[in-house]
Amino acid sequence: MRVTIFGTGYVGLVTGTCLAEVGHDVICVDIDNAKVEGLNRGVIPIYEPGLESMVKANHASGRLNFTTDAAAAIEHGDVVFIAVGTPPDEDGSADLKYVLAVARTIGQHVQRAVVVVNKSTVPVGTADKVRATIAQELANRRTTLVFDVVSNPEFLKEGDAVNDCMRPDRIVIGTDSAQALEKLKRLYAPFNRNHERIVAMDVRSAELTKYAANAMLATKISFMNEMACIAEQVGADIEHVRQGIGSDPRIGWHFIYPGAGYGGSCFPKDVQALAWTAQQYGCNPRLLDAVEAVNAAQKQHLFELMQRHFPDGVAGKTVAVWGLSFKPNTDDMRAASSRTLLAQLWEAGARVQAFDPEATQEARRIFGTRDDLHLCATASEALQDADALVVVTEWKQFRSPDFGKLARTLKDKVVFDGRNLYDPAEVEAAGLAYYGIGRGRSLRTETQA
Ligand code: UDX
After folding, report:
1. Ligand 1 probe mutation, 46, 47, 156, 157, most atoms within 8 A of CB
2. What does each C-alpha distance from 377 to 54, 333, 357, 419, 425 come to in angstroms?
3. A single GO BP annotation from the record (predicted)?
4. Binding-site residues, ligand 1, Cβ < 6 A
């Protein structure tokens, strides 16, 4: 099938590439000329495992093309995806300006019956707005055309996006048109092998499904972070608690990892946007507000632990930070916990030596050049002459450091483990003080010392 995708961000680029990979003829449109030129030369603007080779192969085969020419792209597609950003507005609501701009463009150029598919994460009711916007543009052109607007939210995880797209656990399609549903079923047939993955529903339910999924996952994380806080105070170890509850299939092992707080482009934004929608419709989103508040507090927790360890403050200290991206396998630092920590350390007068396997360039873009930040090329370089180590992101290569070497290198011999990667006993046996998230054990050790 011939597919057009507006937006070459995470969602648009990955979706377009995967659709081309299974044989569809895909054109991706973006307003950013440099990005489009880069993509046509095989320059991938994001770090996503497996994506680069797939983009190059499909581009070489002619099935995947990038353009800034919206009119030609609309002419191309039987199915036109909207996969542009929905950044948060000041009040936490999702800003629809990019989505509606694409709708206007479609309305201005479309010449035949198309199915417009919304993949951007948008508040309930947005498909109606997109439909009205296209209809208005058609009316301005005195043109009558049949078109459908479908909600088809994405559930991609950064760092594993290609895999999620190629092997989706479900494909949610929200539409009241049997024809549009049939078309999308054909489009997704290559991804729908072995068992039925398509969940068809009305448009508004599909729109809400996306938010409900992300809010549920964020809730699990904030719940565990609150449990971690309790564990810390009562002298329990949340890691034992996690293992004690995860084996119950009703709870499950996923998304019960306490840590330095959730970040990224989805959870923080979507929880707030859903709370905003709830309020608009007269619901009181008590739970969503709490999920957000717990997360905001959790992002400050590593610094609180540091204050506990350094009662005289961290002014003049050099702190090694391992991990800047909001999670491993991405260079994305949007709403990353590292940003909260670094801001607090700088405010308190500390110097930061940071290492991240992929996000160095992004960190340089965000923070610029400053005397109190040294972006290091290796994890061990970050440790040189450092007083303490803080692990913020659980990149695989941070999982088993040489603790003896750490103890010899770190001047204050202390490790703050923001993702509970280490066995406290092992770290302490090497002569280091250990702080994790929700590990009351370290408090006990501290009291004993
Ligand atoms: C998320 C959803 O998982 C995905 O389905 C949706 O389409 C977009 O939002 P993503 O933001 O890429 O994907 O990352 P995810 O792996 O879900 O992690 C989000 C954040 O939660 C990260 O900061 C991660 O460190 C944190 N997290 C995750 C925890 O703190 N604990 C956990 O147990 C799991």
Report:
1. 157
2. 28, 18, 8, 22, 30
3. polysaccharide biosynthetic process
4. 154-158, 214, 217, 221, 255-257, 259, 262-264, 266-267, 326-327
- pLDDT tens-digit readout, 338-373: 999 999 999 999 999 999 999 999 999 999 999 999
Of 165, 229, 266, 376, the catalytic one is 266
Q: Mention every residue, 6+ apart, whose C-beta is less than 8 A from residue 276.
A: 91, 92, 93, 94, 123
pLDDT more than 70, % of the chain:
98
Q: Is residue 219 part of a domain?
A: no
Distance CA 44, CA 8 (A): 10
Can you give the pLDDT at residue 443? 52
In this predicted complex, what is the ipTM? 0.94
165 is catalytic: no
pLDDT of 444 above 80: no
* Structural domain containing residue 418: 298-448
* Atom in ligand 1 nearest the alpha carbon of residue 257: 33
Ligand-binding annotation for 255, yes or no, is: yes
On whether residue 101 sits in a domain, the answer given is yes
Kindly compute the dihedral angle of the four CA atoms of residues 131, 136, 138, 142, in this order, to the nearest 10 degrees: 150
* 30 marked ligand binding residue: yes
> Is the same domain home to 189 and 316?
no
What is the 113 CA–ligand 1 centroid distance (Å)?
Answer: 37
Q: Is 303 annotated as a binding residue?
A: no
Q: Which residue has the tokens 């540091």?
A: 306
**Amino acid letter for position 186:** R
